[in-house]
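Propose amino acids for all 428 sites.
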């Protein structure tokens, strides 16, 4: 395997830059750059020199020997001054070293996967951690990166292996008297795994929303103050407002951190009948986005019939609280009346929903769990048909085990790897 190197910290001027080298020649390359004074282990301050003996920089040098490194290979990291000129000089010197090449995006992490230091779910957690913008996203990504999903899948897998082995013993000794009926234990093991899979698969959609962001749509008739309310919530002029109905014709999106949760606010076109073709397109789009949103905030009078049906958790408020003598249950983006209460209400609803999130965070995880569930359901149905069908039940259990191995990337995910690692930066 090639020895690779790259800048592991962000591009551009900084106080400190981190340059990583990993592979079979990493220690030799590091020693060459340090004038054959590479620290045998741990960290040390060294003068870095190029092949001509010219001083490049003074750097903190860290060495990691296989398998005790991020990649599982021999690794050297140089913490240099963060000048772009220093970084360029060090990278240029490494590039001139025989046997070294620049790393591809995500290649360090890919090697960690290939060397067994991370499973695929942990790789995805690392990608999510790098992209995390809110506290909820950070906590979710840290749980995946720590191996929580892999541990869960391994526990299910161990139970299924136990169940399949018990059934296969019965098959192997079909012509003899088996002293113990294994069916109750097998049934209990399958039921236990099935319950866990059902619980986790239900919560994946909420977990996906924590990762990608909840959508909250502001819905109502034209000129009720939807855009003004959006601007008040966003703290800036994100949408055009005017006294003329039908100003908003497209979906205006504002992404924000709401009590640690990622939320995208949607300002939609006013819902009404219109003969204006362009406005009609905007209204149709507004209806569709409102239907798909996780939560809707309706601005409407008490006796007003809504064009979009309310769901559990949706919020209904009267508009333009600043123009009312009684502002109970009303909100105004112009004056700010009721805006804080609305934010607290939205935060409370979304926090309650996020509490139902599973450890699994992606559609790929859900698909693997649903496949395992389908196999287990079939296995249980077949078991009830009697011992003569146990070989088929055992095969269904083995199929469920393979689905769980797909969940953590042990098998059947080669076609996903290029797509996953292409999202990583060069030094990861």
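Proposal:
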């Amino acid at each position: 395997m090639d020895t690779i190197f790259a800048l592991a910290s962000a591009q551009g001027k900084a106080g400190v830059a981190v340059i990583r080298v990993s592979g079979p020649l990493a220690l030799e390359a590091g020693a060459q750059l340090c004038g054959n004074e590479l620290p045998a282990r741990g960290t040390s301050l060294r003068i870095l020199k190029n092949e001509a003996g010219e001083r490049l920089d003074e750097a903190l040098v860290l060495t990691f020997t296989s398998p005790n490194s991020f990649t599982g290979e021999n690794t050297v990291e140089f913490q240099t001054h963060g000048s772009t000129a220093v970084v360029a000089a060090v990278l240029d010197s490494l590039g001139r070293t025989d046997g070294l090449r620049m790393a591809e995006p995500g290649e360090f992490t890919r090697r960690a996967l290939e060397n067994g230091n991370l499973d695929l779910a942990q790789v995805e957690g690392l990608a999510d951690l790098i992209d995390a913008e809110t506290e909820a996203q950070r906590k979710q990504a840290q749980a995946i990166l720590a191996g929580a999903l892999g541990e869960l899948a391994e526990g299910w897998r161990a139970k299924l292996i136990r169940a399949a082995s018990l059934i296969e013993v019965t098959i192997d000794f079909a012509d003899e008297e088996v002293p113990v009926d294994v069916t109750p234990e097998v049934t209990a093991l399958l039921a236990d795994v099935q319950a866990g899979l059902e619980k986790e698969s239900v919560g994946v959609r909420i977990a996906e929303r924590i990762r990608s962001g909840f959508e909250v749509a502001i819905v109502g008739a034209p000129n009720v103050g939807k855009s003004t309310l959006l601007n008040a919530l966003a703290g800036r002029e994100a949408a055009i407002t005017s006294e003329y109905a039908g100003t908003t014709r497209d979906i205006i999106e504002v992404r924000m951190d709401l009590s640690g949760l990622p939320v995208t606010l949607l300002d939609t076109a006013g819902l009404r009948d219109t003969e204006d073709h362009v406005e009609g397109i905007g209204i149709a789009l507004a209806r569709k986005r409102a239907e798909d949103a996780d939560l809707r905030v309706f601005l409407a009078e008490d006796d007003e019939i809504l064009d979009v049906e309310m769901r559990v958790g949706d919020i209904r408020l009267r508009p333009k609280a600043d123009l009312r003598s009684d502002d109970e249950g009303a909100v105004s983006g112009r004056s700010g009346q009721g805006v804080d209460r609305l934010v607290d209400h939205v935060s409370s609803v979304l926090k309650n929903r996020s509490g139902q999130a599973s450890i699994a965070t992606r559609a790929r995880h859900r698909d693997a769990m649903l496949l395992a569930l389908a196999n287990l359901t079939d296995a249980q149905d077949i078991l009830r048909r009697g011992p003569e069908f146990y070989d088929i039940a055992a095969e269904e259990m083995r199929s469920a085990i393979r689905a769980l191995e797909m969940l953590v990337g042990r098998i059947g995910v080669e076609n996903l790897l290029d797509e996953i690692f292409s999202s990583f930066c060069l030094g990861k």
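The radius of gyration is 29 Å. The domain at 216-354 is CATH 3.40.50.300 (Rossmann fold).
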